[in-house]
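Predict structure. Chain length: 156.
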Amino acid sequence: MEEILKTPMRTQDVFLELPARLFYLPAIGHFAKAIFSKHPYLSRCRDHWLYSLELLLYEACSNVIKHAYKDQEVGKLRIRLWFEPTSVVIEVIDFGRGFDPSSIPEPDLKDPPEGGMGLYLIKKLSDRFSYFYSHEEEGNVLHAEVVIPDRECMGG
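Prediction complete.
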């Protein structure tokens, strides 16, 4: 059983809610690039490491858009971000049907599929990952925490 991570006690630094539609996915990508590259805690980080945060958020939102509301009206998704001096916490919340992440097999990396790599990437890019139903949110929460590495962020 996966550890359920706790949302930080303080209010999120960023809260964004939007319709879960493919139309918004490029905007989410641009938003991620802008917020991660400009945040004071991350301003000294290398581009390839910042890209991993962007990819994590993008893939989490993409999965919600493509899978959470299948056979339903378009739903919504929420993005919450917390910036700490030593980590970034990303939460993507949806109100569609949930799933069991352990039921999704890891892809064959020797013969990678064209699609279906999202959850694998999210887990690999996270230092701590969980997915759970939140009664408080009344929705599904993908929670990922990424430690800010000194080696990629030149000491801070």
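Summary: Strands lie at 14-19, 76-83, 87-94, 128-134, 139-147.
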